[in-house]
Each structure stands twice: as C-alpha cells, then as structure tokens.
Amino acid sequence: MAKAEKCRIIAIEHLTLDGVFQGPATADEDTRNDFQYGGWSAAGDDPKMREAIGKYMGKGWSLLAGTRTYEDLYHAWPQRRPHDPMTRALTKPEKFVVSRKVNYPLPWEHSTLLTGEAAQTVASLKEEHDRNLLIFGSGEIVRSLMQANLLDELLLIIHPVILGAGMRLFDKGSPLARLKLNSLSKTENGVMIAAYQAKKD
C-alpha cells in the first residue's frame, strides 16, 4: 500500500505594504474597528496573481479556516455566485473549521468542525490528513500555527498600497519566525508575489 503524502499547511495572504490583511476582497468583507477600505486588493487583480494562487488550488487540497473566513467565503461564493467556477473550486474540497464553539453550525457541504485551540486540533489533523491544507486570511490561526511550528509555507501577495489603518497579519505579539524565500515574481500592476518556506526550529 502506497504511503500517503505528507500534509503541508500553506497560508495564502493578500497584504498592503504596511502589512494590512483586513478586508482585501470586498467593501463589506470585514468592517471591524470601523475599517473603511474593504476591497483594496481589487485594483491589483491580475492573471499572474490568480495563476500563482491556482497552482496551490489545482492540486489535491483542503481548506483550513477560522469561522469568520469560512462565513465570508460561504456568503461570497455559493450564496451569491452559485454557478461561478470559483464556487465549484471551493465547494468540492474538504473544509476544516477551527472554532471554540462546540455547536458552531457548518452550512457548507464537506465541512468538518475542529473544536478547541488551533495549534492542538490542527496538529492532529496534519498528522492524519493526506492533502495540503490551504488557509486564506484567518490571521489568528496563522499566527498560532507559526508559534507551534506547524505552518510550512506562506504565499504573500503584496499590493503597492498603504492604508495606514486596518488589522495587520503580523502585528505586536506575533511569534519570531525565520523564513526562506522560495520564489518571487511581480505582476504588471506592481503586486509582488513571494512564496516563503517556514524554517523549523
């Protein structure tokens, strides 16, 4: 019997030059703390950027998300665009949702609840799962997994914009992390696409 491939955890994040990752896609995506710049990544949209993300989604993969990201994706795609190819791409894979709420509802098919602290529940999942786990957004989970040396790769899509406000992916209190740059490219719109490998202690 062939041995299952080792599961890797990969975070795919849109960032501004000042490190903001809040609400990149739409105006109403994440308005916490009166954030007014939702949808800031739209100006940087480019086929090369979508191709870079598509390389990770083109292989066998599963989604790993916190409750806010899970809800955002569910409402943005199957609820609003049921026939869009992206909806199919997100609906088919398994979806693992980290929550401290034991009875958190999961309306999207192929969804499994991981109850408890992310570092503990995801560590067990990583040992058992045979596909890569992709994270979009979910900054708290990303930081927690980095602290526990569970994150394998970061794809940072860095847009040439400074907002001066908004939640930052790596803010005060983020764990010390040393990364290795695996690849770097840019789009015609000036978006930098940087793939980093997490160095394990």
Assembly status: single chain
Q: How many structural domains does the protein architecture include?
A: 1
The best one-word shape is globular
The name of the CATH topology is Dihydrofolate Reductase, subunit A
Beta-strand content? 25-35%
Describe the structure.
Pfam families: RibD_C. One of its GO terms (biological process) is riboflavin biosynthetic process. GO terms for molecular function: 5-amino-6-(5-phosphoribosylamino)uracil reductase activity. The chain has 201 residues and is α/β, with parallel strands linked by helices. It is built from 5 helices and 8 strands, in the order βαβααββαβαβββ. It has helices spanning 47-57, 67-76, 85-91, 118-128, 139-147; strands at 9-16, 61-66, 95-99, 111-115, 132-136, 153-159, 179-186, 192-198. It has an 8-stranded mixed sheet, with helices on both faces. The longest helix has 11 residues, at 47-57.
Layout of secondary structure:
Elements: E1 9-16, H1 47-57, E2 61-66, H2 67-76, H3 85-91, E3 95-99, E4 111-115, H4 118-128, E5 132-136, H5 139-147, E6 153-159, E7 179-186, E8 192-198
Parallel strand pairs: 1-5, 1-6, 2-3, 2-5, 3-4
Antiparallel strand pairs: 6-8, 7-8
Considering the chains and any ligands shown, give keywords for the structure.
single chain; 201 residues; alpha/beta; Dihydrofolate Reductase, subunit A; eight-stranded mixed sheet; 25% strand; globular
